[in-house]
Amino acid sequence: MLILISSVDLATMVMRPVPLDAGIVRCYVKQVYRGFFNTYGYELYLQGRIGTDESDRFLLASKKQMRKNMTGNYGIYASPSCDEGSRVGRMGSNFLGTVFTLYDNGRDPQKVAKIQDGAAATASSATPESNLGPGDNVLQIREELGCCTYEANRTSVCIPDVDEMGRHSKIVRPMSQRDRIVSRMATGELTDLVKFVNREPVFREDLGAYCLDFGGRVSMASVKNFQLISADDPSMGNVLQFGRVADDMFTMDLQWPLSPFQAFAICLSSCDTKLACV
């Protein structure tokens, strides 16, 4: 169970994998409306344990922005106000809404290269009094924390591998397109990555329909409902499940090796508009 002490602690905790011995962590996602134009976003809450006096705890909020190239971009924040100082990461999509990539707060490597080239040019013409040191133009390149791809009736998710202590075996910080997680998913080069796929529904004769068993945690049918299982070891059970319980409310249950940030972003990708394959 997560214990939230301060916004700084929260921003750190939500980026860490759920502890292996924590089991299933129960959360819910609420759709909210913000701003003058009443645009919608989502908020993630940790659900207090039933039968205790624990209250629900805020974890994360999202805000969607459209880019000039008409691709979606979700900012993810450790504050309900979604102020930039509380941003912990983001998720970007392609135009069709079929590929979503999760990032931390680092910078695009192409933009970093341009900034560093400009800084180098400035340094070469600067006076000694400018105090521009060799490390002043070194900027943090973003880390990829996962990728979701959508095809007809098929969802695939890859995240960097973690050990039982929640430590990454290798940080994914690609400097070229071929090293990105989405490119590696396409070629099957999944070393140091973990792959999950959606659980396929089972036909129930009593209902005459294909269904998933959400264990009573989901009460409304929706195309957004899903369960993720390990592609290599389905016996792990549901690593993540997400489903509608009201017009503006979903339950979200996760376990190791996902972090709350990764799980929330994956669920946001399920809610996003898709122009193909659904």
Automatic annotation (TrEMBL):
Segments forming domain Tubby C-terminal: 15-273
Q: List the SUPFAM superfamilies.
A: Tubby C-terminal domain-like
Q: Which Pfam families match?
A: Tub (PF01167)
Transmembrane annotation, as ranges: none
The organism sits in which domain of life?
Answer: Eukaryota
Query: Residue ranges of region Disordered?
Result: 115-135
The UniProt family comment states:
Belongs to the TUB family.
The protein's name in its UniProt record? Tubby C-terminal domain-containing protein
What is the originating organism of this protein?
Aphanomyces astaci
